[in-house]
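Look over this entry.
=====
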Amino acid sequence: QVQLVESGGGLVQAGGSLRLSCAPSRSIFSINTMGWYRQAPGKQRELVATITRSSSTNYADSVKGRFTISRDNAKNTVYLQMNSLKPEDTAIYYCNADNYFNVYWGQGTQVTVSS
């Protein structure tokens, strides 16, 4: 019954910025890695960025230098700051987290970047 909840998606013009947030609907014990994935029309879901509890990060090549992932361990919240957005960034963005017991996913939030 516990799930992740994303916020911050929307419509933005090319070159603009958005900041996504994600937190559990209820408390989750001892979250390890958190991350963001996205799925564009006609494509498979792909990894965007991940961050460990100690703040080690990993990014897809397509977003390096433009996106920044961060987290607040006290709140079990993960963020994705997206700058210099391009139309090809248009996708549904999904939040992910894991612990010893389970893998958790959010419902997804739509990000649309217009030309």
